[in-house]
Amino acid sequence: MSDQEQQQETGQLKTCFVVMPISDADGYLPGHFTRVYNHIIKPACKEAGFEAFRADDVKQTNMIILDILQRIVAADLVVCDLSSKNPNVMYELGIRQAFNLPVVLLKDTSTDRIFDISSLRDVGYDESLRIDTVQAAVVALSESIRETWVNRDTDTHSLIRLLGIDAATLPEKTQIGADTRLILEELSALRSTINNSSKPIGATRMNASRTVLENLDDSFTKNKIMQIKNSVGSNVIHPHFGFGRIIGLDGDDVAIVRLENGETRRIHPPYDGLIHIIDASDK
Prior knowledge:
Elements: H1 3-10, E1 14-19, H2 32-47, E2 50-53, H3 65-74, E3 77-81, H4 87-98, E4 103-108, E5 122-125, H5 131-150, H6 159-163, H7 178-196, E6 211-215, H8 221-230, E7 235-238, E8 242-250, E9 254-259, E10 264-267, E11 275-279
Parallel strand pairs: 1-2, 1-3, 3-4, 4-5
Antiparallel strand pairs: 6-11, 7-8, 7-11, 8-9, 9-10
């Protein structure tokens, strides 16, 4: 059964992670690369039977750099737009090529070829994005995607095969420690709170150069209660309620937190992801 027949039977599209400039770049109109993504890359991927997505498509899931790197390796295919020679794009392309996984290179006609990868094919498109050139670019890119996928096991996706060295491999299973997992979860909750907050966070409140986030230990109840007692008067942030200050205890273990909006919340153990904000100058 062909890939296309399997796809029609399962109803699932293959994944294509798109590596490209996301922010505006010098020499391009605002929103240029978003238009390239929406009008060239996504239609070409769909035409070739792939679902295209890039990092900002999944920002609501608190994607962090680790997630991006995992998706670069895990995606069935990667389309990489070299236009403007963005350093982040080059870095992410290097990771994909280290594993010698299928990748399709794309660049506009105003970007010079890059010497180190000049031996690899790329698909060109007119940076003007004129309507009479966009459709031609979609056709050319979709054809390259199909060809790359069909020849994924034999084609040269990087210099790895040309140099005759082994491609990088992932370990069979990577275990993340409980402490690391907890920190990542709390950072994700913090990012969500910041993104959803209606009030801007001033530099005095969240200065990255002088602020340390200390996660309240979840290991043992006694330790947590002791940390709460020692944190009375300290600023905290909660993934659902936002910023506040611990003003006291209700009984022996219930933290009383006064929020920015004046509300008072009683937070019971295990304190629901409460994060203690410690000024580095206090340490």
